[in-house]
Design goal:
heterodimer; A: mainly alpha; 2 domains; two-stranded antiparallel sheet; 77% helix; B: alpha/beta; Rossmann fold; globular
Chain lengths: 317, 430
């Protein structure tokens, strides 16, 4: 059931989305698109890793599949880009099911590496397939025509609303029967299975859903860049970024990824504006990740909530 | 060097910050004193670090020179414009290239963008075309820029332009190099399995038909992956066929083990013309004594009989200035990096209104300029949006001066204006 506060949040999100599309300038919209898309992806990775325990090194496979599904369908048919965008999660979701059946034969570290290998296979396949553009990539030409207008206006509105809606949906999901089952599996997989939860099917469902979600976010992103290369889309950097955002922000919390994204992009913008090089930015990121993991192993958000509880209620725990 | 270039870039945010700070302290701040209406913003993207850093080695220096040149602004049609440079290093990373593309086009809203890197140019192309930002790029054979972007020769692109030699010219030059030495007319080929490598081995447009046409017998060892460090299959094939010529496409880190295996097998080829492996002096120096006689394509050299439209310097003088100030041997991108600015600034000047994207676009399209790398002719090009430039063939010879090896022009088949400096000799010297 939707709570009142969630309904209000959705309404506010919708209004903010429309305002962002109308009032912001296109540079800011593009930056916001990047932030929101990363947030959506991070939230998906968080759902799989933090709630279902599927630590995957291969989310870049879904980034790539989402991007390529969007470009290939848009360029070779007359279906409008926005309809294609809605088809992307279905197409990628269907691809994720057989793939999930294979990778779930692996557990823990093997699973993580298995997903990475799967992403690498997809990457090699794209590079070796001339009809997919090979290693030189693709440009977005819906129905063969150059993109006119301002895609980031629509994308920023959709991504902003989707981000709010996703949090509301996840909150509702975690209260539902299925959500409780997910939490039970996270806490004790064998125990959950003993109480009658079909763990395998649950894992597969989450894998498919989060994969489709990442692909949709990627499709949103690549509809603003107008250019896609396999080296970019299937790059392991996506996995590193999502992991950083989720782990530093707070794994298994809904607010953590928001903090992670704010930190990740905020620091990048601050450092490039002040003339530091990309290499220096990654060094700071690495140091920050190590510091957070050593000092606040739960992540920033859980640490903040613990601190807040202690401050307000005294040291009850 | 990267650091300097990054620090040198002045973004809008930094400007605001400097502006606010100086306003607060009551200092004179030229950056906020100028009105938005008379500032030209020039965006730049290049590979200043990362795997293609060798291609950007001279760039920080060139950028520094341009900054000095533009410090007092630019005169266009009798009006003085301030110039703001937005310089970005894409770290040879495609992902970074896309975010820089959006930054230069959407956030900074540059009046013109100069791209000294293939990836940078590809990433910004579609966005620049759809948002009307005139863009000029170079440093990759024009076919590799034009066709993957879906270009049609008689239409071109609305706002993006490219100047460089074609891969066909590189191949012709290679074939002419092979003919300059007495051989058994047998050529052993092998190629790296990437885009340019594939263009080289293309059975219809690549090297194979050209070799055949020129009367060479090819022993093809085929493509190899980028991670390869063992070439025994290729070497075994060559041991059987005993070609006097070795050619193809590979990087220096492939060539060294390959060459060692060739030597172990007791082969002594007379000509070795390998694309990409010997573009830079560092690649030849890595071979030690064996570098003498390696042949390569030459897009630009100080011996090119051309001069800069910006400084009036001859190619010789530009290279000498770099060698003196950087204390390193000249490299080919020095000329192209300089020419990129020549073309960009000439287009801005010819446009009459550098803030109007259509005026700048038309100015580039109508440009026919004699730059430090030679003539860059967009106006009369058979391929719209592309200016095809010339290319010579060169051979690395034991240095007579300061550096271990000097690159000598030995073939000018595709660029007759460039004087031949030396006769092509068999490997190992004459």
């Amino acid at each position: 059931m939707m709570k009142k506060v969630e309904f209000v949040a959705l309404a506010v999100g919708a209004i903010a989305a429309i305002c962002a599309a109308i009032f912001l300038d296109s540079g800011l919209q593009f930056l916001l698109c990047e932030v929101l898309v990363l947030f959506l992806m991070a939230q998906m990775w968080n759902l799989a890793a933090g709630y279902a325990g599927q630590i995957s090194f291969g989310p870049q496979m879904f980034v790539g599949l989402g991007g390529y599904a969007l470009y290939m369908i848009s360029n070779n048919t007359t279906i409008p880009v926005w309809v294609v965008m809605a088809l992307v999660p279905i197409v990628v979701g269907l691809l994720a099911i057989p793939l999930g059946m294979v990778v779930f034969h692996l557990k823990h570290a093997y699973f993580a590496i298995g997903t990475w290998v799967a992403a690498e296979i997809a990457f090699q396949f794209v590079i070796k397939t001339p009809s997919l553009g090979g290693s030189s990539g693709l440009v977005l030409r819906p129905g063969g025509e150059m993109v006119e207008g301002y895609p980031e206006k629509t994308v920023v509105a959709v991504a902003l609303f989707a981000s709010v809606a996703l949090i509301v949906a996840l909150r509702m999901f975690l209260r539902s029967r299925l959500g409780l089952a997910v939490l039970a599996v996270r806490d004790n997989e064998t125990g959950a299975e003993a109480t009658g939860i079909n763990v395998r099917r649950l894992h597969l469902a989450l894998y498919t859903l989060t994969g489709a979600g990442i692909a949709t976010a990627a499709a949103l992103y690549y509809s603003t860049t107008l250019f896609l290369t396999p080296l970019d889309a299937f790059q392991a950097k996506w996995a590193v970024e999502l992991m950083f955002i989720v782990v530093v922000g707070g794994l298994g919390t809904l607010t953590g990824p928001a903090i992670g994204v704010a930190l990740f992009i905020g620091l990048r913008e601050f450092m490039t504006a002040n003339g530091y090089s990309g290499d220096q930015y990654w060094i700071i990121m690495g140091v920050l990740a190590i510091a957070v993991l050593l000092l606040l192993p739960q992540g920033i958000w859980p640490a903040l909530t613990t601190f807040y509880t202690r401050m307000t209620r005294g040291n009850t725990q | 060097m990267t650091l300097i270039a990054e620090k040198a870039s002045v973004s809008r945010r930094t400007l605001l910050k400097i502006g606010a700070a100086s306003a607060a302290t009551g200092l004179f701040a030229p950056s906020i004193a100028r009105s938005a209406g008379s500032t030209i913003k020039i965006g730049y993207v290049g590979s200043l670090s990362g795997i293609r850093a060798a291609f950007g080695e001279t760039e920080s220096w060139t950028l520094e020179k341009m900054k000095q040149h533009l410090a007092n602004g630019l005169d266009v049609g009798g009006k003085k414009y301030e110039v703001e440079l937005v310089i970005r290093d894409n770290q040879s990373d495609p992902n970074r290239s896309s975010s820089i593309a959006s930054e230069l086009v959407l956030r900074e809203r540059c009046n013109i963008v100069l791209a000294q890197d293939g990836d940078g140019a590809m990433s910004i192309g579609e966005l620049a075309d759809s948002r009307r930002v005139p863009t000029i790029s170079t440093m990759v054979p024009w076919q590799g820029w034009f066709f993957p972007r879906g270009g049609v020769p008689d239409k071109g692109f609305p706002y993006t332009f490219h100047f460089f030699a074609g891969s066909d010219t590189i191949l012709e030059t290679f074939v002419s190099l092979m003919g300059k030495v007495d051989t058994n007319k047998k050529a052993g080929t092998l190629y790296l399995d990437n885009e340019p490598g594939k263009a080289f081995m293309d059975p219809e447009l690549g090297l194979p038909p050209m070799l055949k046409g020129a009367g060479f017998e090819e022993t093809a060892a085929g493509p190899f992956p980028i991670s390869a460090n063992d070439f025994s299959n290729a070497v075994a094939q060559f041991s059987a066929a005993k070609p006097d010529i070795l050619t193809g496409f590979m990087y220096t880190n492939h060539f060294i083990p390959f060459w060692n295996q060739i030597q172990q097998a007791g082969l002594s080829p007379k000509v070795c013309a390998m694309a990409a492996a010997f573009l830079f002096p560092s690649g030849v120096e890595a071979l030690g004594k064996m570098g003498d006689g390696m042949a390569t394509e030459v897009w630009w050299s100080p011996r090119f009989p051309y001069a800069s439209t910006i400084t009036g310097q001859s190619a010789e003088a530009l290279a000498a200035e770099w060698e003196k100030e950087a204390n390193r041997q000249w490299t080919q991108p020095l000329g192209y990096g300089h020419a990129l600015w020549e073309i960009g600034l000439a287009a801005l000047k010819n446009s009459n209104d550098p803030l109007d994207p259509d005026a700048v676009r038309d100015a580039i399209a109508n440009l026919n300029l004699d730059t430090i790398i030679g003539r860059v002719n967009f106006a009369e090009s058979p391929i719209k949006s592309v200016a095809i430039t010339g290319l010579a063939g060169g051979q690395w010879r034991k240095g007579t001066g300061k550096y271990p090896y000097d690159l000598k022009i030995v073939s000018n088949a595709a660029l007759p204006a460039v004087p031949i400096e030396a006769e092509m000799v068999p490997l190992g010297g004459a």
